[in-house]
Amino acid sequence: MKEFKIIVLAKQVPDTRNVGKDAMKADGTVNRAALPAIFNPEDLNALEQALRIKDKDSSATVTLLSMGPGRAAEVIREGLYRGADSGYLLTDRAFAGADTLATSYALSCAIRKIKKFDLIIAGRQAIDGDTAQVGPQVAQKLGLPQITYVEEIVEVAKNKVIVKRRLERGVEMVECPLPAVITVNSSAPECRPRNAKLIMKYKHAATLTERQDSSEDYITIYNDRPFLNIEEWSVTDIETVVDQLGLSGSPTKVKKIENIVFQAKEAKIVTADDTGINDLMKELIENHTLG
Amino acid sequence: MNNLFVICEIDNGKVADVSLELLTKGRSLANDLKCDLEALVIGHKLDGIESQLYLYGTDTVWIADDSRLDPYTTLPFSSIIVKLFQEQKPQIALLGASSYGRDLGPHVSSALSSGLTADCTSLEIGDHEDKKNSKTYKGLLYQIRPAFGGNIIATIINPDHRPQMATVREGVMKKEIYSETYKGKVIKIDVNQYVKPEDFVVKVIERHMEESKVNVKNASIIVSGGYGVGSKENFDLLFQLADVIGAEVGASRAAVDAGYANHDRQIGQTGVTVRPKLYIACGISGQIQHIAGMQESAMIISINNDPSAPITSIADYVITGNLEDVIPRMIKYYKKNTK
Asked: Which pLDDT value is given to residue B171?
């Protein structure tokens, strides 16, 4: 039987949902070090959809592709612990400063190099930018059809998928030929947890850079167990037009970043007891805010 | 040539509110730039649609009408827009940050290698000086949006690529009729010249859309809950209060992410923007991304057990206490004082 190959795009993001008071530096810039780096939540929803295909079809394989700094290998390990088969990390200073267009370009070049795939699945958007642009732009660059806002991959047949899209006011069932790019919403089922056996199997999975400091006899385990290798690609490993990468490949530029200071109002303090609330409700009714 | 385009979304034969809001904003930006405002409508059975668009000051309405263009799928829409933009060379193109605009916009911008900024909360025209290359740019579109989970506000520009593209959420811009008598012209697009047969490979096989029952955007009083509400059960308290005082229930993103409320209630940069006469914020800390969507409320009451929550800085009334105590008291004393 022919192998059904799925690529899942995953991004490591700062956990912007749990921003503490030390998240901003005094000069108004973001203190990235104060934010934990996590697997982008909707990319986990995407991974789950891929793993569900694998559950039903033993010929299916799931490959993760991430772009980011060296430590983004963590999201690939995280994916392996949950059932993915392999991973690629695209990492190079040449990619730095990329907006969504330059990011999509780099990812599409890496996907071209992976070459064989039937389906690409990504989260709808990443929580650090919330743009939802990379999925559709990867599809456009690869000349593939796209389906965004997917809640469930309902059926995978030989050369097509049927998916359910969750939109603002309802659902849509869509049929699409393969290969295709699908982006998954957070309304899709949560990703399964790490699997204890897979943690044992993949806990030494690492990129070449991560292994550099390891001792000689440690290195041999990677020769014996090639599945522990997280493939690491730099700009020279993929075919690109360099000026379409990173900052120079980004049409959008950040002109200004500011911390918003709200016009502070003189707030009236209302005590939470019966008298305080009674007076407040009376006032709101009398000035016709209520009733 | 080099005009400002709004890509309009059609909903049940009507132009979507978000598109009319963008035409209103687009008209004022076009006036600043001294260029025309053009609207592009793609769909089926669009006869007479231009009359809805002239009211908002549209100079040219482009119509692509074909039975294959309803319902929406990405590829044919993108093909039409990309080819039309290559011919017309707009300087700015705006679209709603709905699922439609967020699906279509990036595809178009990738094909044109133009920049696209998602979910802008403000759009302005301004200049830019590139000191490194000693180049001055006049009349750029400043695309202003919260970033980084709403912790900072960024101004984005596309100095060298056209069109400058941006999406804006429904409710962020105000919809205002420009002139009852404004008249523009219609240009019909010959669809077959713009699409390829292979653009129609994706098929919508079933569609269930409902009129949204929740109408947070137009409510005059909103009781809104954040992560601090603590549970879906506690959210019932908000519904009880809303029911008694005739309000709609809203939610912050954190509350929606936690599953306390549905997404159609979300207020903030990634939800809807509201301007009610009274906004009661329950257990909402007040991240910028939320405040961006409600700060224009005429009156804000914050109920929070943390007296130093950022939301207190924009609140008119601050009640420090537990929702479980405060909300039942509000219900009790509202009833008592309206008798």
From this structure: 86
For residue A75, the model assigns a pLDDT of: 97
Question: Quick check: is A62 in a domain?
Answer: yes
For each of the domains in chain B, give its residue range(s) and CATH number, in order of start: 4-200 (3.40.50.620), 221-338 (3.40.50.1220)
ipTM of the complex: 0.89
Nearest chain A residue to B158, by CA: A252
- Best of A25, A133, A282 to disrupt the B interface (most B CBs within 10 Å) is A133
Structure tokens at B323: 């929702």
What are the pLDDT digits (tens) for A187-213? 899 999 999 999 999 999 999 999 887
Within-domain flag for A30: yes
- A104-128 pLDDT, tens digit each: 999 999 999 999 999 999 999 998 8
Which ranges of chain B would DSSP assign to H, the alpha helix?
17-33, 50-54, 74-88, 99-112, 232-245, 253-257, 288-291, 323-338
Domain residue limits at A90: 4-249
A131 in any annotated domain: yes
Contact status, residue A181 vs residue A69, Cβ threshold 8 Å:
no
Number of domains comprising chain A: 1
Give the nearest partner residue to B201 out of A168, A177, A277, using CB atoms: A177
Q: SS3 for A131?
A: coil
